[in-house]
Amino acid sequence: MPTDHNDPQGDGLAVVVSSSPLPARVTLTPTFDPDTGEWPVFSDEDYRLAQALQQRVQEGMLQVAVAIYHIREGRLHLALGATSWTDYVDRMLPFGERQVQRLLRVGEAFGRHYLPAPERTPVSGSNPTPVSGLGSERAPMFEGVGLSNLYELTRLPEDDRAELLEQGTLTAPDGTVYTWEDVQRMGRRKLEAVVKEKLAPYKAKLELAHEATAEAEVERDALAKALKEQSAAIAAARDLEDAYRGAYSTLAEKTAALGSANATLDTLASLVGRIGVTEDDPTTLQHDLVALLDKLDLVRGLAFDNYAAVRAALAGIRS
User: Fold this and answer.
1) Which residues of 116-137 are buried (b: 16+ CB within 10 A; e: fewer)?
2) Rounded-to-10 torsion of CA 248, 250, 251, 256
3) Which residues contact 292 (CB under 8 A, 6 or more apart)?
4) pLDDT per residue over 154-182, tens digit each?
5) Which residues, in sequence order, are CB contacts of 169 under 8 Å at separation 6+?
6) Could you tell me if 49 and 18 are in contact, meaning their C-beta atoms sit under 8 angstroms apart?
7) Most exposed: 42, 71, 182, 313, by fewest CB within 10 Å?
8) Which residues in 275-296 are b (16+ Cβ under 10 Å) and which e?
9) 124: helix, coil or strand?
10) How far apart are CA 262 and CA 268, in angstroms?
11) Collapsing DSSP states into helix, strand and coil, what is residue 133?
């Protein structure tokens, strides 16, 4: 039974074969098949069929990308019974996590232009609710654009991608203007080179920003170190101040402090005179008295050292 090229699988899903002329690059010469070791020759009709089937694959993958994006954004995987997004990916998608991320990126970038977010309609009883809004009058513009090229276009700055989708043009840094039709016909490597050129200025700015960030981090670390050292110095100064206190600065403060010291010494002299410890008292008590007397000698020595200049000046006046 001859194969129906309009319905090769006999499943009733006819493939619309374009009648447009083949691109000039196509040559219908024998092509080596490494699986069979043969050199089959394909006709114009074979080529058109292959193109139509490949277009179906590309459109299907784009629809999958956009659908997955809308499912995630609407948290609809939970409505499907998944306990989390990871659970949905693991159990309900035939893709690995890396491929899902690529599909999500494409779906996010082109969903608005290809398949708008579905509208949620009320559910009556147990009847399934038809999903409306899946479709766009702009969908034909994506025909013939492979998923790899669409993913490459997601790397474009948003303004450039908007220019391409809204105005149908992409301006390269050298001034070359590519139309959407040019992009449709581009191979992946060519498109990758164009996108790389578009990203070059942004890459240079990003490198400058990284350098500035690195310098700022060095300055921040230096300031943090200086602040830490300064804080430690302040804390040490406060400890010294708490331990020894600073000198009084005003005459009133000095007069008050001297009067307080005199009163303290008078009280101390009275107490020492009334202690009355003798060699007959317990040894520990005698040691405590000697320690007190040594401390009085230490205070006397510090006072004489600190105010030696004052004593010398007064001695000269008195003489």
Assistant:
1) bebeeeeeeeeeeeeeeebebe
2) -50
3) 272
4) 888 888 888 888 888 888 878 888 888 88
5) 163, 177, 178, 179, 180
6) no
7) 313
8) eeeeeeeeeeeeeeeeeeeeee
9) coil
10) 10
11) coil
How many residues does the structure list for the chain? 319
Q: Give the closest residue to 139 by CA, choosing from 53, 76, 54, 66.
A: 66
Identity at 246, one-letter amino acid code: G
193-217, pLDDT tens digit by residue? 888 888 777 776 666 777 777 778 8
Side chain identity at 69, as an amino acid letter? Answer: Y
Output the pLDDT for position 62: 81
The amino acid present at 154, given as its one-letter code, is: T
Residue given tokens 């708008």 in the structure block: 116
Taking residues 50-62, report their average pLDDT: 74
Torsion, CA 121, CA 125, CA 128, CA 130, rounded to 10: -30
| Pairing, β 169-171 against β 177-179 | antiparallel
What is the dihedral angle through the alpha carbons of 96, 97, 99, 100, rounded to the nearest 10 degrees?
Answer: 110
Best CA proximity match to 148, nearest among 105, 178, 111, 182: 105
Beta strand ranges found along the chain (DSSP E): 169-171, 177-179
Residue identified by tokens 């050129």 is 197
